[in-house]
Specification:
This protein has two helices and four strands; from the N terminus they run βαβαββ. The chain is of the alpha+beta class.
Length: 101
Amino acid sequence: DPDPHPNQVSEQIFVSATSEPAKVAGYISNCVREGPAKARLCITVAGPQPMLRALKAIFLARHHLAEEKLDLSIVPEFGKSDEGVSLVNIFVLSHAVGARI
């Protein structure tokens, strides 16, 4: 049965300056392993420290998924919250290793 909302984000993750990259990586990896319905992730960060932690988590998740011949790519989107805080939404796309996206 095809997903009725193929372009919707299935998981929203907020990474802060205190988030543990290894735990975030585990969550990302598990979502990807659950299949396409859970594998459209958006990680939201505000500030440089959360951005570094999110990118480290994505790096670690790529390492975890390599054994299963899965890879991740990211697409950043810059914006502001309703309160005027600068945000970055990092859309994480899962795909086969070497796939052209």
